[in-house]
């Protein structure tokens, strides 16, 4: 009786995965933070604290819109900057959240934010 449930769950998982892949696979195959981390950095910096200068900035698992959003940052949220992808214009900054954000991202969470949103 229990074996039938396992088979049904396995089939359901395969249906969901197949549907995600047919729809482009962007959700099922989004890059993770551990796959990118600071390895995409081109410019390192001494640790510097910034405040987010806008409302609605996406905090992501990698440097770009193709990476999954961890959450949203709002004006005044604290971010410690470690490095960025290139010059400050049109770059992505890697760092960590200093204290729990307005939207509930925990302190210490590492990720990427578009550099122009940091003040």
Automatic annotation (TrEMBL):
The keyword Signal applies. Transmembrane segments: none annotated. It holds the Pfam family SH3_3. The keyword Mitochondrion does not apply. Residues 55-119 form the SH3b domain. Residues 1-30 form the signal peptide. InterPro entries: SH3-like_bac-type (IPR003646). Keywords: Signal. This is SH3b domain-containing protein.
